[in-house]
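hi support,

uploading two proteins for the ticket. first:
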Amino acid sequence: MPRRTTTLLITAAIAIGVPPPTHADTPIWVGASTGSDGKAWSVAQEEIGSGKLSYRRSFDQTLPEPSSANWHAAGSKHWYSAKPIGKDVQAYIDGKHDEQLGALARSLPAGTIFTVYHEPEDNMSGATFAKLMRKTVTVVKAANPGVRVWYSAMAYQWETNSKGNVGSSDGWIDAARAADGVALDIYAGPGDATPIRADKGFKRWWDLIKVPSGKPWGISERGIAEEHGEQKRVSMLIDDWALAKERGAHHFLYWQHNNDGRWKLSTEAEKAAFRVIAAQGRQR
């Protein structure tokens, strides 16, 4: 590792007062979202993982035919999201898509983390999502008991409630209790250089969903805008990783592509910082 990068990492770690964790006490899977192109996953494995990334986050906008599902593109383990056909949530809840959901579930490798409708808080009420989650769990577990069904939440909504669906945890906590685990998508946009531990959305979600559900938790998407600069991004990554360790996260996944912003870790110091995290993460 270049001396400048090593110095930057050590300086950031000292600044937050947390020594880098070790393999022995960090059973956390580390991965990334790299888009639907399998080549991008291979690039990320080299640039930010040194071959040690585990879960690949992938998405489909419907319940596809199993052979065409995006989880096939690349990756060792899979954190996969799909949505009801035509985004017709009520038809899905009523069981009209059970056949497609079951076929998709049967194709997923054991150990896959799967959800239907990630970040649901700006699309429906908690009561509706609880019904959707119970339907997902019932059908998926019957088709493939080796798949884990998680609830992937949106930190932005838990902070702002901009769509008015998370004024309370009603319904959402029922969905969390029905799921195998609860995860959070959380971004530090250009005007918000906030580490996860200080993010208001994270804090509220933690208190209202994670703690009372008692379920395993993870970071399913983390993005830090490039506008914050190299040193701040590295410092925040180190602090976020320390938090994941302190609170026993199951996984920590970075949003390593720029489909909707400038999130991709691009400088050598930034990539080296994540390689350190990947090397400390769980490998088997």
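and the second one:
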Amino acid sequence: MSESQHEELFARAVGDFRTAALPQITPPGPAGALQRARVRRRNRVLVLCAALALLTAVPATVLAQQRPAPVPVVNPTTTPIPSPSGTASPSATPSASPSGVSPSPAQVTPSAARPTTSRTSSGSGSSKNCRPGGFISVVNDGPPAQVEVDALPNLCAGEKLYFFWAVYRVQDANTLVLTSSGRSYVDHAHVRRSIGLPGWNGREDVENCYAAFIVQGRGAIKSTIPWSSGQEAFKGGSPYAAFTPLHWYPWHYYCDPA
């Protein structure tokens, strides 16, 4: 075997060894960090869902225990009419009663007192236990996002929970610009709403250079908002002062156009 064949065989063996050993010594890099971030977020969402289910079950149990017991209906009783003294016939009219005896009080008074508890008391229990100014929750951040009433039994009848949504895209290294928005509400007749959030592909997509917000209330929708590396993912707060059940910024290191 010639020297060149020996060198080629040796180089091939070194390449095979490098291919087999490189994945074991290469650090995880950005992909591994993103995978760990997804696992942490999934665990956080599971914990929040469990807490929400517990908070929803506790008021329902308390309301069931505080519901008033049904009041039994009292059967009217008839007081026997005492016979007037004398020998008058029972079929005689009161004017024929001897000695001017007046009719018995049992003939003119109600036979029984009406129950003090109204029949509609059980139906009005929800209005007595409701708390004006309820909250919305985002049960699925989409897309599409699912917005629903949080703790529906505590929402007063006829009350509406208004909210608006806004989607922004990266304009430059410091600014996000509005691309789409809308307003809606939830109530007893519309427990859940589906919001499309056009342009936003969900928080699991790190290549999605859009921001998304769902805000409770009827506040003004901003045309632009500031953007910095400190606001990406869950680290930045919402630019809206109202209660915000969803806020999401894009990853600055990936989406920065500079």
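thanks. also noticed: The first strand starts at residue 135 and ends at 140.
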